[in-house]
Write a structure and sequence with these properties.
By secondary structure, the protein is α/β, with parallel strands linked by helices. The chain is 28% helix and 25% strand. It binds thymidine-5'-diphosphate (TYD) and magnesium ion.
Length: 482
Amino acid sequence: MAKARTQFLCGQCGAVHPKWMGKCPDCGAWDALEQFIEAKAAPGTLNLGDDAAAGITAPASAEPLGQVQAARVPRIPTGVQEFDRVLGGGFVPGSAVLLGGDPGIGKSTLLLQALASLADRGTNVLYASSEESSHQVRLRAERLDGSDAATRNAHLWVLSETNLARLLEQARRVQPTVLVVDSIQLVHRADVDAVPGSASQLRRCALDLVAFAKTSGCVVVIVGHVTKDGLLAGPRLLEHLVDVVLSFEGDRHHAHRGVRAIKNRFGSTFEVGLFEMTGTGLHQVDESTLAADPSLEPRPGSVAVPALAGSRCLLAEVQALTATGILGSAKRKASGLDANRLAMLLAVLEQHGGLRLADQDVYASAAGGVKLLEPGTDLAVALAVAAARTGRTAPAAFAAIGEVGLTGQIRPCSHLEQRMAAAARRGVRYLALPAGQIPAKVSGLKIELWPVDHLSAALEFLSPAGVGRVRKSISATKASPK
Ligand code: TYD
Ligand code: MG
């Protein structure tokens, strides 16, 4: 006969401890341990726990890797292309996906859109909301663009339920291809003596949902809010239970949002899905909407950069402004850029570029709400600040890439060919890039390359005379026999 055993579960990291402590020894979080009761198997029997409850009892036997059948992973594309891109082509049947993000960022909207798109194509899907009534879900669905309301309305099932047992019972009845549980924080099991959203409820409910996914082959998508509120355990607790963890990021007050994979057992975690929140739901954003326009009249303090976002490359714009500040306490503000990296670039500009910035307030931002955190954007940031400080402008149709080292040296950056192609496609004519990194395959691109090895040399690009000198020296190198 199984006996119950009292244990303590950490709401931050999910570690289980035999006794209560003020501080979790695993993650160091204070006051995070919470009591829960786990069924203990009788002596002499193997505790199959939730597996047994879920019916996963088929005996497994070890076999050599070579004999394992390598089946190709089938995919269920949702039809929301940016979402499919992050998933690696679509949902994998029987997988559990966790979508985390701040409240109000657009998780419910994104999932309802994905389900609506699946239902449009005749796939049975179930949207179980623990936060909203079915009526509210319908109102939301009506705001979203739809191609075929009749098919959608027949295949998109909606349920407003917080009790997990009843939710799963409905899921077994409807037999959906995809089940969305929005959100896990309000779902509860009646036999667990804890409030919804507590660590033990979250863990038990998530385990049941994952077991349901594995046994039924249905894709289960679990929504989790990330909150700073101590009462609600964050979805980090659930991350190791599921196959895919997605994070919805962005500023609630800015239209552009990104979905990225933090963990994906069936694909890469490299891709980013780009969305924009509009009056009719989330719209997919392609690179061209975010791109800087190099054909515009150049402005002081603005430099374009072909930056990487996942496997794509977008032409972003870095803007900088300097204003007289107080020596010793000048402000440095970065938006969409790494503030520490900006401080480093300012020091390099002072030391190796001959610019006086100590008494200047410096503001630098990535235009359009994009985040430029990769080192390949260093040169563009440095040039934008230098241009703002000196009141000069970069040439028209100009972009810059390269990492700036502490010695002022311009260092190579990754994916150069892809960045060059993207820049050329968007109308960049002149590209400053690290000297010694010019790839072999440049023919066919209508783009003039200006290799540069040091920051002081790159500052030449900010004056017409300097540009003239650079172009002359490039044509001289080309003309001279090797
Ligand atoms: P929501 O998807 O409910 O966020 P989450 O589930 O992550 O908490 O929606 C977020 C916000 O988006 C909400 O404040 C209203 C807004 N919104 C729009 O601007 N347009 C729309 O078409 C929809 C459905 C929502
Ligand atoms: Mg929601």
